[in-house]
Write a structure and sequence with these properties.
This protein is an alpha+beta fold. It has nine helices and 18 strands. It has helices at about 5-10, 15-20, 25-30, 65-75, 80-85, 145-150, 155-160, 175, 215-220; strands spanning about 55-60, 90-95, 105-110, 115, 120-125, 130-140, 140-145, 165, 170, 175-180, 180, 185-195, 195-205, 230-235, 250-255, 260-270, 270-275, 280. Strands 1, 2, 5, 6, 8, 9 and 14 form a seven-stranded mixed β-sheet that branches. The protein has a five-stranded mixed β-sheet with strand order 3-16-15-12-13, with no helix packed on it. The structure holds 2,5-dioxopentanoic acid (DO4) and magnesium ion (MG). Magnesium ion binds next to strand 1.
């Protein structure tokens, strides 16, 4: 696993610097570095492996379950059918690096959204050369009611405070597949508990992913420069029925056994509501 300790031993403090190198260079750095953490890993909070100018992007409708769920929730259904079968995938900007939520910190639902879900997703860690360096576990928190009202509201349904969480550490790509990407199917599991009781559970495998990871990467980098690389969340194959919504206080646990785990409690998105009901900007955002 590639984490902060390994990074420092390799002579860098930043993932974005690392993502300027070719996979072969990163691999040789990792394999020639012997690390032993100078602290007990259980006593520190690990940050997610994203920083600098690295952008977080996401893809959608890459599993049949996702296509069916969007058709069910949306008043405009054919866009999801169309993108599911189209050559060009759905790609959308999800988060700046500094906004990404760590494992163990709260993710959020919006105060103006009635139907909300966590979306457990395999995340590709990409260098600036559009190569897959490794994998992590992501949670693409989403408002189904806002996107369902109108697909043009997707940025508001998907981008808000606490909307994307990422596991700590990177599982190097060369440990799971060939240089072109993943060779094997990975299990993806999600559990949601409320007051300590399980209220929703689902699982899928990347065998149900209907595209190739390489084609998502190719479309992301087409006509778009990513000097510090990118994280690309590959879409969800696990969507609860319309009778389920995540509530503040829920705990969301996601596991991709060969990649990592991610656990976050759910809170209400940071923001303030004035007495007249207007939203004002998030007060605590870093400058
Ligand atoms: O437009 C819908 C977004 C879909 C998505 O985020 C997913 O399939 O994971
Ligand atoms: Mg998603």
């Amino acid at each position: 696993m590639l984490d902060g300790t390994a990074l420092r031993a390799m002579g860098t403090d930043s993932i974005s610097n690392l993502l300027q190198l070719r996979v072969a260079e990163i691999r040789s750095l990792v394999e020639s570095t012997t690390t032993s953490p100078a602290f007990d890993i259980g006593t520190v909070s690990l940050l997610p492996p994203v920083d600098g100018l690295t952008e977080v992007w996401a893809s959608g409708v890459t599993y049949k379950r996702s296509r069916d769920a969007r058709v069910e929730e949306s008043v405009v259904q054919d866009v999801y059918d169309r993108v599911y079968g189209a050559t060009r995938p759905e790609l959308f900007f999800k988060s700046a690096a500094w906004r990404v939520v760590s494992d163990g910190s709260p993710v959020a639902i919006r105060i103006d959204s009635l139907l909300n879900v966590p979306e457990p997703e395999l995340v590709l860690i990409l260098n600036c050369h559009a190569e897959i360096v490794g994998y992590a576990v992501g949670n693409d928190m989403s408002s189904r009611s806002i996107e369902g009202e109108n697909p043009l509201y997707l940025p508001q349904a998907k981008i808000y405070n606490g909307a994307f969480a990422l596991s700590s550490g990177i599982r190097p790509a060369w440990e799971l597949g060939g240089p072109a990407g993943l060779d094997r199917q990975l299990m993806i599991k999600m559990d949601v508990t409320r007051d300590g009781v399980g209220v929703w559970r689902g699982e899928t495998t990347t065998g149900s992913f209907t595209r190739r990871f390489a084609e998502l990467v190719e479309h992301l980098f087409r006509c778009y420069t990513l000097p510090d690389g990118a994280l690309l969340s590959t879409g969800t194959g696990i969507v609860p029925g319309l009778d389920f919504t995540t509530l503040p206080g829920d705990v969301v646990s996601i596991e991709i056994p060969e990649v990592g785990t991610l656990m976050n409690c759910v809170t209400t998105a940071g923001g303030q509501t004035q007495s007249d009901g207007d939203l004002v900007p998030f007060a605590n955002a870093k400058k």
